[in-house]
Amino acid sequence: MSTVLNFKQYEMQKAKNYVNEVYEAVKKRDPHEKEFHQAVKEILFSLVPVFAKHPKYMEGGILERLVEPERIITFRVPWVDDHGKVKVNRGFRVQFNGAIGPYKGGIRFHPSVNASIIKFLGFEQIFKNSLTGQPIGGGKGGSDFDPKGKSDGEIMRFTQSFMTELFNYIGPDTDVPAGDIGVGAREIGYMFGQYKRMVGSYHAGVLTGKGIGYGGSLARKEATGYGTVYFVQEMLQDKGLSFEGKTVVVSGSGNVSIYAMKKAIQLGAKVIACSDSNGYVYCKNGINLHTVKRLKEVERKRIREYVKEHPHAEYHEGCTGIWAIPCDIALPCATQNEIDENAAKLLVVNGVIAIGEGANMPSTLEAIDVFLNNRVLFGPAKAANAGGVAVSSLEMAQNSMRISWSFEEVDAKLHQIMTNIYRNSVNAANEYGHPGNLVVGANIAGFLKVADAMMAHGIV
Ligand code: NAP
């Protein structure tokens, strides 16, 4: 008995040393890429039980290869503003891992975009895409361009210039970008138009998130937000709970947030707060989603305008205060590291029962520990927000078949995919000795498929 235990302990220690060596090498190679290190750390250390059980992945150098992108493209994006002034931004595309299919992942336009942010997003995307059960590899892209306050003409000229370089590296069978922060239907439309012009033929499957009239999928716009809520619904159901009558706080008021709010409200919850990068609105009687949608999707205004139409609501400057509002369920749907350790502790003290990460890496590693240690139901981003990329993949399938499914068909497939992701994550967590820990479960479930494909392909 004790020999078996010692052998197991030995295998675990060997696996820990291996993971640690790879992690240290990542930090040494690119010491300034803090966000990338954070994403790598979260995933790598949760894989220790896998390496202990299956040393073949260590011998195959899977981790050393996984943490190094297959390709990073960095390029100049020159454009001319409305005053005739020449501007230059930097464009990125990381093609991180194509073991299970063409690279797939969004494009982000935000001034904070740099190699570290794009690499963290691309790295996460590998596991997320694998979890969806679809044949898609991991990629991500973007630019430090700030779309806020820009005219339509400026957005179009910038986006066209961005695609004039990017088109060299993408294609329906190589790399299929989509939207992300700052890139919605308008930007995808301009990118698609420029791609079509550059290649001289119509490849609907080269981008997803397209308009419905030219190859887009019904329910893609809703998919990430709806999917996050479906995932949380699964976590709640397992505990005999539901959204009915719960209070919900949602950060952000962009694509993911709006449709997370919509689905939560449909399921009987009351959404009491949402935000943008300037501040948040709190309305104890429930946020009026029609107003938020109009302000954000149509008029592109700030969330502070909400209180002009709903004077009983409160507006507060600054983003972090939103987590001090007592709620049953918190859905961070804005950006990375928006919930730190203190915010997590406040949520716990105020009685939160579930967290669903709609955004990518919205909780710091310390915040995640607070949630897990306090037995809060925690749906990690790469599982909970995988609905967007899953429906993007369904959009690619429809493009290939030259057919369009109804909203209800796509929504039903999305719901099923989210249920499968939840179940697979639960099962992997149980199998590898971490019951109830969906961070570990999702990481392991996502990893195994990619690792097996990489092993099958040889050293490439
Ligand atoms: P979006 O439409 O551009 O919306 C982002 C929202 O977050 C905006 O309301 C923005 O406010 C707000 N925001 C940004 N920084 C903030 C901060 N520090 N505090 C509070 N609010 C802040 O982008 P999105 O597509 O919804 O993406 C949101 C998150 O979901 C990102 O992490 C993205 O990577 C992730 N995600 C998106 C998809 C998808 O399908 N779109 C799929 C998976 C994951 P401002 O308007 O003031 O900037």
TrEMBL record:
Keyword Nucleotide-binding: yes
UniProt: NAD(+) binding residues: T224, N255
SUPFAM superfamilies: Aminoacid dehydrogenase-like, N-terminal domain, NAD(P)-binding Rossmann-fold domains
Positions of the record's site feature: Important for catalysis: D180
Active-site residues, record numbering mapped to chain: K140 (proton donor)
InterPro entries documented for this protein: Aminoacid_DH-like_N_sf, Glu/Leu/Phe/Val/Trp_DH, Glu/Leu/Phe/Val/Trp_DH_C, Glu/Leu/Phe/Val/Trp_DH_dimer, Glu_DH, Glu_Leu_Phe_Val_DH, NAD(P)-bd_dom_sf, NAD_bind_Glu_DH
GO CC field: cytosol
Keyword Nucleotide-binding assigned: yes
UniProt GO molecular function: glutamate dehydrogenase (NADP+) activity; nucleotide binding
Domain annotation Glutamate/phenylalanine/leucine/valine/L-tryptophan dehydrogenase C-terminal: ranges: 217-458
Keyword entries, A-Z: NAD, Nucleotide-binding, Oxidoreductase
Subunit composition and interactions: Homohexamer.
Listed name of the protein: Glutamate dehydrogenase
Gene assigned in the entry: gdh
